Amino acid sequence: MALDPEDIKQEEIIPLASMKDGEAEPRDSLPPPVSAASKPKPKITTAVIIPIWMAFSVSVILYNNHLYKQLDFEFPVFLVTWHLTFAAIGTRVLQRTTNLLDGTKDINMNKDTFLKSILPIAMLFSGSLILSNTAYLHLSVSYIQMLKAFNAVAVLLISWASRIAEPNRRLLGIVLMISFGVALTSHGEADFNLLGFIIQACAVGFEASRLVMIEILLHGMKMDPLVSLHYFAPVCAFFNLLILPFTEGLAPFYQLQRIGPLILFSNAFVAFFLNIAAVFLVGVGSGLILTLAGVFKDILLITASVALFSAKVSPLQVFGYSIALAGLVLYKTLRQQEVDLSLHVRWYRIRLEDKDLDQP
C-alpha cells in the first residue's frame, strides 16, 4: 500500500511530553502501543536493512509520482485502494507461510476492540492515505517531503489539545523551529499550489490524529508495521471502496488496460515490501539511527525528485528545510531520551519491588 514511509518511525508513538522542564525523574509514561513484535525475526544487520528500506521507501513515492504525472494515471483513491487490497491479501499469505506475523497471536482482537479502536483509526488512516496521495497531483515530491516535517508539530499540537501530553519550553521551542522552517520552504516554493497545500495540510492533520488515536486506543498492544497492516488494510480498503464511486467512479478501470498488469502489480509489490523491510528496520535500529536514516532518506528523495522530475528547489527552501530537519532531529532525540529515562525508572522500581517481595 502507498504508506508514507515516515509511518515506520512515527507508528512507534510514545508520550510526547512525559517529562516537565527541570524534573529529575519523568512521570510514568505509557508504553508505545506499536512496537516491534515480541517474536524473533531473522537476523539482518543495520548496515544491510537501512539501504534496503531507503531504496523501497524512495521507490514507493517516486513510482507513485511517475504513475500520476508521467503516465497520467491520476486516480489516487483507486491506487491506494489497490495497495490496501494487495496488502490485506499479502499479509494473510505471509501469516500462513512465514513467522513474520506471529505477533497476531499475542493480540486479542475481539468485537469491542475492533469497533472502538481499529475502526476509528482505520477511518483516519484511509483519509490520510487518500489525501497524501492526492497532493502529488498538485505539488512536487520535494515540496511535499518538506511539508511532512510538520507532522511532528501536528502530533504535538493535537496531543496538547486532547490533554494527553503537557507542553513545555523545550517542545514549544521545537514546534516554533519546525514551523519557521516549513514556512520558509513554502515561501520559497516556485510552483506553489494553494489547493495542493490545503490537501497536504489536511493529510497531515489526519495522520497526526491517527497517531494520537493509536496512543489512546491501542495502548499496550504490540504491533510491528506488518501486524498493523494486517488489521488495518482490509478495513481501509473497505472504506476506500465506499468512497471510490463518488470520487473517481469507473474512470480508473477504463485506464487499466493502458497501464498494464506489470506496472500495477510491481507498484503494489514495492509498496508491500516496504512494510516488510520496516519490520526488520524497527527490530535492529536504535531511535537515533532510525531518525538519521529518515533524514538522509528525505534528502535523497528530494535530490531524486530534482534529478528525475526537474523539481525546482530554491536556496530559501534548502535553508528553511535545514532548520525544520534540525528541529525534527531534536524532537526525535528528546522523545527517545524520555522513553529511555522512563524505562530506566520502571526497571529500578521493579527491582525495588522484587527486593521487597524477597524479604520475609
Features:
72% helix, globular, 360 residues, mainly alpha, single chain
Q: Can you characterise this structure?
A:
- With 360 residues, the chain is mostly helical.
- The chain has one domain.
- Helix 2 runs parallel beside helix 13 and helix 3 packs antiparallel against helix 9.
Order of helices and strands: HHHHHHHHHHHHHH
Low-confidence stretches: 2-41
Mean model confidence by pLDDT: 82
Q: Characterize the overall form.
A: globular
* Count of helix runs: 14
Provide the domain count: 1
Helix content bin: over 70%
Radius of gyration in whole Å, from Cα? 21 Å
Number of strands: 0
- Measured between the Cα atoms of the first and last residue, the distance is 57 Å
Beta percentage is under 5%
Structural class: mainly alpha
Largest sheet features: none
